[in-house]
Amino acid sequence: MTYFQRTVRLALQHHWTIAGILVSSLGVALLWGVNIGAVYPFVQCVFEGRSMHEWIDGQIELSQDECDSFNQNIAALRNQEQSLHEAGEGFEKVERQRILEEQRLAQEQKSLASHQWLEPYVKKYLPPDARNTVIMLAAFVFIGTIIKSAFLVANLYFVSRLGQRTVMLLRNELYRHTLATEMSAFHEENSGTMISHFSADAGNVTTGLTTIFGKSLREPLKMIVCVAGAAWISWKLLLISMIVCPIPLLLMYFLANSIKRASRRALTQNAHFFQRLSESFHALQLIQAYTTEAWEKSRFVDATQGLYQRLLRVSVYGVLARVNNEILGMGVLCLALVAGCFIVLGEPLPVLGIPLGIEMDLGSLMLFYGLLVGACDPIRKLADVLPLLQRAEAGAERIYSMPVSHTHLRAHETDSYLVCRLLL
User: pTM, whole model, 2 decimals?
Assistant: First the structure.
């Protein structure tokens, strides 16, 4: 996005507003993931009837038992490996099995260490019974939602301030440049096109700026938090769930080019519409004097019909982008549900014909699904981002490509490059 990137560079000069946007976006994303993370202790308390004190003690005891079991298996495999080595027989299979057991032991020791680190905080800050724990979790989620909403309000304010202020400066510079343009260059574009630069084109740039600093930054951060949490629970199950991703992403690439072309044509037709309107208003006395109302009406109907067709095509591409994102999110979720069925039934999960063993308890599986749903919601909200950014690029391209006074040209400098230099 060559032209729109210059506008983004102009917006980046507002350092304090950018800092406010970053802080508020991070706050929204982190609290989004933390609120979803409350699913795990809720499942442990409601479905299993245990408090978090009992849960942490049980996890530590289970991890210790698993570590002891792995140590015994490793010791037995080492003895077997040594016996086979002394007998001169093949011991490679036993060695690979021992290495696998050692890797599992290392992973379980990390889990034990994390639970032991968490134990004093759980017993210090959480109630000892399940009922009060659920009440505390509900209050925690409610307070977290209020704080997240405050961050969201601040984020929307900073984003709107940045977009409107940047386009205000852009319009002021564009107007100053228009007044300094030679009449010969000014007449190359009609008044309707010039009005569309200040209204429709600048409006699309405003929408693009608020989108790229708002939804395009906030929603991916929320998705990253959820995906990172899901990967921490089971990265293998997450990779299986994302097998369907490449196809929708490839379709999105082709849709982006189509949306850009359709948006550029729609803005050109919008300028043509403003030109017809401006001509009719300026020549209204002549139209009535020569009774050419029918002719002018037919010309205006042609302009509105062309604008309707261009905007309809942009809307169709936007709907296709939304559907593509919906398919992406649901495909990831459905694959995770199918894989979860294998885990719950205790069957090995086959991937390309290879069994892949994944062990998860009910709370972890429910939290994994909750995080995937939390990641799919930003994908759904990002469906409108691509059309809006392509319209912003088309609007910025039209603004920066307007005719200029050639007395301001430097050596080896094109018209559009001069507009960029004068505006930025």
Answer: 0.70
